[in-house]
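Limitations

Structures in this collection are predictions, not experimental determinations, and the ligand pose is part of the prediction. Treat each record accordingly. The example that follows, with pantoate as the small molecule, is included so readers can see exactly what is and is not provided: the inputs are given verbatim, and the output is the predicted complex.
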Amino acid sequence: MQIHAAIADLRAALKNRGRIVFVPTMGNLHAGHISLMTQARAHGDTVVASIFVNRLQFGPNEDFDKYPRTFQADCEKLDAAGVDVLFAPTETDLYPEAQAYFVEPPAIQNILDGEFRPGHFRGVATVVSKLFNCVQPAAALFGKKDYQQLMVIRNMARQMALPIDIIGGDTVRADDGLALSSRNGYLSDTERAEAPRLYRLLTHIRSALLAGHTDDAALENAACAELTAHGWQTDYIAIRQQSDLNPPASALVPRVILAASRLGKTRLIDNIEV
Ligand code: PAF
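Predicted complex:
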């Protein structure tokens, strides 16, 4: 696997490499990332991954400084997964001057996670569009665990006429249902044992919806109360329509249940489609 930090070196390395498929990450790779790398192979000739912990998408009181950085182990995993090229820029490579131009997503950036992480999706959209310019992929893969992020990026690519297929990869879960996430490493043993409750509640809500339950607010509130009773602090549990993440126009539209809740100091997000 080739590793490049400088944009010019990356561009030179990607000349005449056929259809490029790109998987951007912030590192600390787990089986969810590796599954995206493996899927990427089926979509093109050259698989490019990136590792960059993007300061722009972290709020002032968030975990940018303590975000796990495990570069050597990540390189070994990417190499074993058959990734051809890793783009691992430093902050100076990607932001040689303070970034003053931004990609500003529309109202979707202010709901759900955006309400609790102001500026997050602007930071994501900005870095992803910059990474796209560096790599110039024909397709890019993102995990569905970050459902709202996937939608922001898909809408951005469509509206900006980017010639990039945006592909969503299914969430990979531990045996007990917990969605794999780099932030799971922050959990204590007790918190880790408690954490699968979030997914259990999402599956419970999905079963209720499929059984014809129509009082969305009652389902959301009951799940929230159960989390609170077990020591969680919940930002949201929301039943939304898949098309735009607004409240469902009816029980007939495809829906998704999204949640963000804090266990101790760790904020976990998850979702499940109905
Ligand atoms: O999902 C992530 O890991 C990040 O938000 C991304 C897409 C790599 C942008 O920094």
